[in-house]
Amino acid sequence: MTTRRKHPAFTLIELLVVIAIIAILVAILFPVFARAREAARAAKCRSSLRQLGTALGMYREDYDGMNCLFRVCPEVGPDGNCLRLREQGRTTGRTEQWWAPMDTGGAPAGTLLNFREPGRTPDRPGLVDPYVRSAELFRCPSFPGQVGYGMTFVWGGPMGRSDAEVVAGATNPSDLLFLWDHDNGPSCGGASVDGYLPHQRPPFSPVTGRDAEAHYSPRHLNGMNALYYDNHVAWRQPSTLRDSNFRPTGTAPAAVPPLAP
Predict the structure, then answer these.
(1) Which of 59, 70, 226, 240 could form a disulfide with 151 if both were Cys (CB 3.0 to 4.6 A apart)?
(2) Minimal CA–CA distance to 226: which of 69, 65, 98, 52?
(3) Residue 151 to residue 190: CA distance in whole angstroms
């Protein structure tokens, strides 16, 4: 006569131990996977910035050594100088154009643009569009908004100036920023401790901490990716930014254009 053996069963304590071990493993591995995913996004972001740097270099070559403007505003006045605007987040009309492609939704002049709204299809080409293959280059994979990078328009910086002037004035062009991770649209005058508008500087002393996060977005492992004037890309902690990263020493002009009403 044969007897059947009963299948061994887990006790409640054993089940709880197994569950606790699984929970501990998940708690350990989840941050590792999250960091690995963000590292991959950061690498893609750096690749996009390098390609945008190449596009900006090609633009400069086609325009007799002049660097791209962050924005052209024909409806502001005869000079079309966007730096005269009091609020850079508002559209000036249907003829304005940013360096990057934008979707304004046909907004009339004076309308505040929503740069952070995801899923928008550009209705207005960017100034560097002829030199890029895809509008996706302008969208950092860790930022859902329209354009994930801001071009500097800090007064005295490289934007809109000749390459010869920038290189001659810069102590080290490899320290000069051109584009970086940004949350407030495709351009940035920079958040500084003494004000935001160009006529409130120099000196330019970048703010740090919470107040600076929209301007120097630490979206990649507590730091930002930045494109420098010599076309190299590097990760940077916003707290290390200095005036020399935004303009060559001594190049800030004594006078600035009057602001538009």
Answers:
(1) 70
(2) 52
(3) 10
